[in-house]
Structures are given as structure tokens and as C-alpha cells.
Amino acid sequence: MPIVDTYWAPETEENEAVAVDPLLLARQAKASMKAPVPGLARSPAGVAWVNEYTWFWLGEQEPLEATAREGAVWARVTAAPAELVVSGSAGEARCPVPGRAWTAADGGRKPGDDVCALVFRSSGSAVVLDVSVVYDVSWTSSTGAGGGLGQLTGEGAESVEVRESGTVVRS
Description:
Order of helices and strands: HHEEEEEEEEE
Strand content: over 45%
Number of domains: 1
Structural class: mainly beta
Helix content: 10-25%
Region (Disordered): 146-171
Largest sheet: 6 strands, mixed
């Protein structure tokens, strides 16, 4: 006759921590996140001008957070804005967020690496720009595990009026 040993383990937080993979919770938390439509600011604020730089930057962008929990085990996911991408008929600009607003000291010179800017070559009343913010996603957990969890992207569109300035010179 076989001998059967029975072992009973009481439900404790320690036993639950072993049964739940925090990486699965982190993936669940990331899946619940939705990146917002980017809030784009630009200079000049009203209309853009042909052959002049139009600068873009993000308005307030808070890191996104989500937490998933199973018993005593939790995983917290944070998505921090890392890159701003503005693209359209004028080309594509990629820059680190939040970018930087134009100031009078910048004048009309070519923007540096900390600036998102495009030059429109033709005028139009509704030039559509695609705007994306790429978020770097990381996670931590109650077990001490954590790390990178890829990227998340928030997307939107912005319509810009582009005007052309003309001059007539008579002699």
C-alpha cells in the first residue's frame, strides 16, 4: 500500500509572493496604460511662415503610472516621455522631450539639438502634422524585480496654417 504524506501550508504573504510572477503583473499594468494625445506648442504660435523655422515643444507631460496587484505582490509601471516626433510635408523632426520654446535670443538661426523645428517650403491653409511622443517604460515590484519594459507611443495630429510673405519692389 502506498504511503501518502500530506503537507499543509497556511496562506501567508510569503507564500503568495512565490506564486505570482511580477513581470506578468508589470505587463498587465503596461497593457492598461494609454498614452495621451500629445499637447504640442509651437512658435510662432499663430501661423507658420514659408522658409522660416517653426519650433515645436511639448506642453506639460507627466510620467504615466499604472500598478497591477495580485495578493501581496504588486508591479508598478512608469512611462516617461523620451522623444518628440513631428512629421509632415515639411519633413520630420525628432528631438528629446520636452523640446524648447523659441526665445528672441534665438533669432532666425538654425536650431540646436535640443529643439524640434521644421521649415515649411510652401504655403497652405491646413498643413497636417503627425505628432508622436515616445515613452520609455520601466517597472518595479514588491519582490525587488524590475527593469525596462519597452516603449509606449502617444499619437495625434495638428493642423498648421502656413503663410508666405511676398514683397513688391518698384524702382
